[in-house]
Specification:
About 25% of the residues lie in helices and about 20% in strands. It is of the alpha+beta class.
Length: about 290
Amino acid sequence: MKNLSGLLIVLVLGLAACQPVASTPEPTENTVAAPEETTSVVITTEMPAETTDVITMTEEATAVVTPTLEVCSPLQGFDQADLLARISNPFDPPAPGSDNPHQGVDLSDFDPADPNRIAVPGRTVQVALPGTVALVQTDRFPYGTAVIVETPLETLPADLQAQFGDLAVWPPRSPNDPLTCPTVTPAPQYDASRRSVYILYAHLSSMADLQVGEEVNCGQTLGTVGQSGNALAPHLHFEVRVGPAGARLGSLAHYDVSASEPEMAAYCDWRVSGDFIWVDPLIVLNLVK
């Protein structure tokens, strides 16, 4: 019996020894997901730095394209600061919708040898702001021989863009205003979505060979000082307005029996309609703020 019992004990112990030992479970998908998510979080924390770099580059690019615009004296041979001593008739703006008294500034070339400051003709008139020729006319009353140059508002320095882009809207014209305007005229064709600065150079005695739509540069010759149209002495009438882009008025004439209805309509549109709002010419010439 004792031998049989010993044999049973040995068999039991041998079977126990043959049982497989429990191994460490294989990793499951859930088990490895945490390290992957942790890695993703680490990568995500680096993104703000990349985003900041992109914003910085955008701001630097914007700063590079800020508009700068050269301004030239409209009278050749005189610096802009010299023009204050050349004013023979100052800017005297009327009430909105009225045609008088004076919607520009007159600049004259005085004979330095004459103590009475007699104005003389012949001084070269040149482009003050680069742009596109919007009007060319020869000896039409009251502006005489004249040129208008259009400069897009967005090409001006930021301070002028803000100042000229926020001009007060003119009220409707008074029915008692003495200026006669045609009652029925073709609707003007402008680009109302954009604004431009228009500079009129008037009373020229001669004019360069210019075409409407032609691009002109700062300092380019437009003509010479004269007294064509309604001018009692030689001078440059320098007039500045802000209005819808792309205006092509054709010809401006009034107060004369030879003025046609389209010319009078264009004159009224330019002077009193409120589509083209006068501004102080000396602001454009950087002589006043």
